Hints:
- By secondary structure, the chain is α/β, with parallel strands linked by helices.
- The chain has helices at 17-28, 40-52, 67-81, 104-132, 144-147, 153-173, 191-194, 198-207, 216-227, and strands at 8-12, 32-37, 57-61, 86-89, 135-140, 178-185, 238-241.
- Helix 4 links the parallel strand 4 and strand 5.
- Helix 1 (17-28) crosses helix 9 and helix 3 (67-81) runs parallel beside helix 4.
- The longest helix has 29 residues, at 104-132.
Amino acid sequence: xxxxxxxxxxxxxxxxxxxxxxxxxxxxxxxxxxxxxxxxxxxxxxxxxxxxxxxxxxxxxxxxxxxxxxxxxxxxxxxxxxxxxxxxxxxxxxxxxxxxxxxxxxxxxxxxxxxxxxxxxxxxxxxxxxxxxxxxxxxxxxxxxxxxxxxxxxxxxxxxxxxxxxxxxxxxxxxxxxxxxxxxxxxxxxxxxxxxxxxxxxxxxxxxxxxxxxxxxxxxxxxxxxxxxxxxxxxxxxxxxxxxxxx
Length: 247
Ligand code: NAP
């Protein structure tokens, strides 16, 4: 059983979906979790849900594409709990289209949230982790950042970029005892994938060697492992959580 008692963990985009499952998994392991999302109302209702289960949780609204919001998220976390042990860069969006039909706004928005958002939060968190000479960053990438995907040039570019950022940051801060890894989920059942027509979703699930779509908890389990001391010799890696999808 992994014990993260008194560890302070910030999860972006954690009011729902994979981020919420990660926050819950860490709370169950004894961590103090900071729930953060772009929508304050949903953020606070997730915090209330966690507190009603007896977990230590704190909510901070943050649009990760904003440099100021991201700084506020990390600073307020340290003000409240005195430190930040783990940052999970989870917030992400899709705006799918073939490039021929993709608007500049669809490109810019996905880059701003999925790529710049990881820069924003990591930059501010690393400042505190460097002082503490300890820290863990986990970036939620995607298998399409490895394989590419038609209709997702913007999204795939960000996720490939996140993998490259992960490896660069890992090298920059290994000497300060800060580990940086990525998780590349495959097809996980959340609001994000509900946008895909049902027939297409069924076909995807059938093509996965383990014969099922992933659940947010599958990704949360991987995050818990990477954040724990069991992974103390693992940095600069991409852990694929996809039921064997990309082989
Ligand atoms: P989701 O269900 O859409 O949840 C994402 C959460 O992030 C939502 O609460 C959303 O808030 C929030 N968010 C959106 N823009 C934000 C911003 N600018 N700042 C802060 N929070 C923001 O998505 P998910 O499936 O859980 O995805 C989580 C991560 O996993 C993403 O990085 C995604 O790319 C990655 N991923 C997912 C899959 C999958 O199959 N689901 C596969 C591979 C990778 P609103 O709802 O209010 O917009």
